[in-house]
Amino acid sequence: MKKTIKIDKKRSGLWQDSDVTYAQVPGWLGHATRDLKLTVIRHFEKQEKSMPLLVWFAGGGWMDVDHNVHLPNLVDFARAGFVVASVEYRHSNIANWPAQLEDAKAAIRYLKAHADKYQINKDQVVVMGESAGGHLASMTALTNDMTEYDQGSYLDESSAVSIAIPWYGVVDPLSAKVNSASPDFDFVYRNLLGTEPEEAPQLDAKADPLQYTAQNKVPFLILHGTKDEVVPVADSRKLYEKLNENGHVTDLIELEGAVHMDEAYLQPEIVDLIISFIKENLD
Q1: Which of 66, 142, 235, 238 is in Cβ range 3.0-4.6 Å of 212 for a Cys bridge?
Q2: Following DSSP, what letter does each residue of 119-141 receive, concatenated?
């Protein structure tokens, strides 16, 4: 069979800029320099106007970070009209908290500094992540305009974001350790803080989003499975209540029967729910 067909161009193609260095940080016990990477999914043709930026932080218990692992699933958001950036951050074998928060903010500043290249609207930035990455998304949003966590380059750019969407994100490290259904992952909180959270309450508080809910008003969409055996769903309920008390627009969606890192989070229904929340709350 031979035929000629006419194709209507209903959507743009997508570029992928893989493993772009966004910052350099100390490595190998402080005696070397380490690159931090991010990958951007952006639109092929020049768009009529800049697009919202969705920044993704993968999970891994702050012990192992593969910023490219969810790229196939994040394409859904690029197709919906976002520029998507998936960001590497230092794991806890390299640096303790708050290095991870400093990295997240450095990545956002880098992306804003290159907004023209990636067609980004600098005033419309959403942070989203899973587990340890969900914790990082919460902390990034709730520390908007706290300059102590802005370290490195592009300091003339703001690291402030507009919306946070944590998926089964850790809230208080101590609460997550004590109330988890399994003790198998208790060590990750010690590695993150450099000490047991119960032995350093002030340090634990520095990594607890609950302590920052009065800082600013950022809309939150919290996703958590009712059968999560790693991060207690009760902690997300506590975050939801605290955010509401302090005037944040906040939705908590509990996924019935979902466990930690469940494929339920990758279904079209969840993608549509997230996109709807963003569109309703993005200025």
Answers
A1: 142
A2: TEEEEEEEEEEETHHHHHHHHHH
